[in-house]
Amino acid sequence: MKRFSLTKLFKGLNLTSFTLVMVFLYIPILILIIFSFNDAKIITGWKGFTLKYYAQLLKNETIQIAFRNTMLIACLSTLISTILGVLTALGLENKKFSGSKFVSILIYIPLVIPDILMGVSLALLFNFTKVNTGMLTVLIAHITFCISYTIIVIRSRLDDFDYSLVEAAMDLGAKPSTIFWKIKIPLILPGIIAAALLAFTLSIDDFIITFFTSGRGFDTLPIYVEGAIRRGTITTINSLSTIMIGLTLLLVVTTKRIRKIVISSL
Amino acid sequence: MKIIPENNPNYALQLATERKKNFTSWLLTAPALLWLIFFFLIPYLIVIIYSFLTADIYDVKFEFTLEAYRQCLTPAYLHTLFLSFRLALLTTLLCLLLGFPVAYYIARAKDKVKNTLLIFIIIPFWTNLIIRIFSWRIFLAYNGVLNNILLNLGLISQPLEIMRTDIAVILVMVYVYLPYMILPLYSVLEKLDWTLLNAAMDLGANEIISFFKITLPLARGGIFAGGLLVFIPALGSYLIPQLVGNQKSLYLGQVITYKVKNIPRNWPMASALSLILLLIVALFLIMFYVLYSHSKSRRRV
Amino acid sequence: MEEIRLENLSKDFDGFVAVENVSLSIQSGELFSFLGPSGCGKTTLLRMIAGFEIPSTGRILIGNTDITDLPPYKRQVNTIFQNYSLFPHMTVFDNVAFGLRIRKFPKNEINDRVKEMLTLVKMEDQANKYPDQISGGQKQRIAIARALINKPKVLLLDEPLAALDLKLRQHMLIELMNIHDAVGITFIYVTHDQSEAMSISDRVAVMNYGHIIQSGPPDDIYERPTSVFSAYFIGATNLITGEVIGIEDDYVQIRCPDGTGNSFEIDSTFHFQPAIGQELTISLRPEKIAISRNKPRYQEDINILRGVIEDILYLGSHTQYIVRVGDLRIRVFSQHKRVYFDDTALDWEEPVWLFWHDTDTWLIDEIPENVLTADELSEGGINHFQRSLKRPTAQ
Lengths: 266, 301, 395
Known about the structure:
The structure holds 3 protein chains of 3 kinds. By secondary structure, chain A is mainly α.
């Protein structure tokens, strides 16, 4: 039918580009996963199924240390940046707060500046103050880039907060402290969890800022992987990557609701 | 007329309550505020200071000089700036061209499938960056999957050398930043009132005219937001050119990193280049802000 | 002259039949309404005429040209959308000029015609405002100007007043009629509001389940409904089922069971030939019935019923009584002229007489699936009734 050929063309074009983009987004990852089971030293061709690279992972102490470092940094920076996020968001709730604008601007700037600049500036700070780079400096850096995200996520949750609930609680005779712990915190809890999750993901994903602030001897997983790629010792990276992708997927699938909050607040 | 005159005791009470609340707010925001001052603002002051110092092999010498800036303006570094700028611009445009139909498609999909489609866009976004780059290395390598497939299909007789070229860099850049473009585009297109397109067609505009006269202008906010989200990080990217590009054409992120990490170090130059990058980003932010608020304020006059 | 003709139009959406076999012709310059409850297919019909939906079967003709296959932008038809659909990023002026600019008219002609149009809708001083700066009624006017400037042969209006409040709605209704008179083109108006359709239209088509139930001038549909649905959907009515027991030359006698095992008789004139023993429905408009506590004087052509007042609802311009006759509930509207009949106000549970002229009894050759309960009757909701109506089967 010649009718509406242009509309159909548009629709077809959109569907085609969606499919192409899907292929584009997933093909490399799928290949990586498949090759993690490939019994070959180099990446050419399929030489048969194996799990030996997964076994190698378990024996590789460097990887295990890097993994432990990553988790430690991620947990600590998530904890601290989430606490700071809750406090700051609560402080910014006061619409007449005289520092509101200054604080807001300071929060948003790190989000719109390339990561590498934060890495360079922190590297120079630690050099200038003669602090030895290592776990502490990495932790400081991670908290610095996580804070903005946690504050914004929790704050947007607080903005949606229905204040009439507080009034209802007061009407029913609740004290301010009761209102805070029994009404406010439970209602913004999904936002807090979402913020923590986001901070955790950002922390385990970060390469560039860690690269600038970690000294020799303190590797996180991304730092290790990058080094291994550069050195060409890549046999275990496929399997390591597959495990990390699996963990991410698990996180994404199990926290559907929380992910929604993160998306809607950014 | 003031409802509560200043000499009314209630006024003083109200003022005191407000002061108390304000103080509490300062107290609550203080930890994050101090943290950002110490670890975000002050480091930039140090960057500014360092950019005027003299370079040393391992550290800096505290002697004032403009040498770093002078070097930044030499053709070699201007070329780096140009390359980075071109890469970021190209990445942004390609992301827009590729992302718009995708965002459009998802926004017009049935409500039930919308979320699923969005998740498919977001999953790569939550996967570790290095892993994603690494997977492209496997895919594009000289003896990698793509070449194998093409050779077996008989489409080429010689493996293509894509890895370690600018094409690979752009490909992976688009791959990594595409979700940043799709999500803001989707969020404006999702809110678009589709009956407006019906109205335009009713008034004589065909699909192409209504797209350019209605859809595109109304999606401007998303295009701006997506453009910034892609352009700014692309401008300072290090990892992608480092892992899939060649060492002949270095990008800004790589140069800055080398000046900090490699021996001989040149921290003043790293600082100066960082400040130039910061300046470009700031200019772009201001430009977009002005353009955006202009297009919005026209409606509010 | 005939302006637009629909021939056997049908539309189904994945098995759901929205419009079924509709044929109709609308005269040039006519103000024609499609009236029906939501989901009756009236909007789909309109969208097919506008070109937004492709008919599953049938043809649409404007004048003598078949436009069934033309995309919306090639039809000499314009639409006023339910929420106006003004382009938010364009000024009032640019919105109105849109159609002319698409057709590449010279600039000064566009200017003149936009100004002329804005004057017609009394919006000449708002040209530089944006849609979010003007009120609902003003948006409505701009939508009209934006459509009419293209000099369409037919203007389609899809529930154009639905978004306005009552007072503004009444005002805009008159304005719309004035505009219609001024431009003289064909208007096709879609609404679920029967009073809107009745007051504005030259002709109305009552729709339900994708069919045109009845079409004709408003008074025809109100006074002479040919189906139970149009009797009930337009205005309020009492529906009583009964059996024909006697036929004289110009009237019939109908026996109506009252639900308690007893029955009463109603006389009626008729417009179709009933047969003895035939079951049919009587439609009795509440305002045609008189109510009194005194028995009226016997007259040959007057129907008289005895009942008890069950409910009284004061409605300002009139009072509604629900009167129990056996197990039936009869609704009566009485204007406040009770001095003619009674000195004191009627009261709850008071026995009363109902009476009306034979010619006010209206017979419908159809039996609804089930008769309304008293609750549904007093709520007066059409939905209850719709539910009880059988979906017509396709022929």
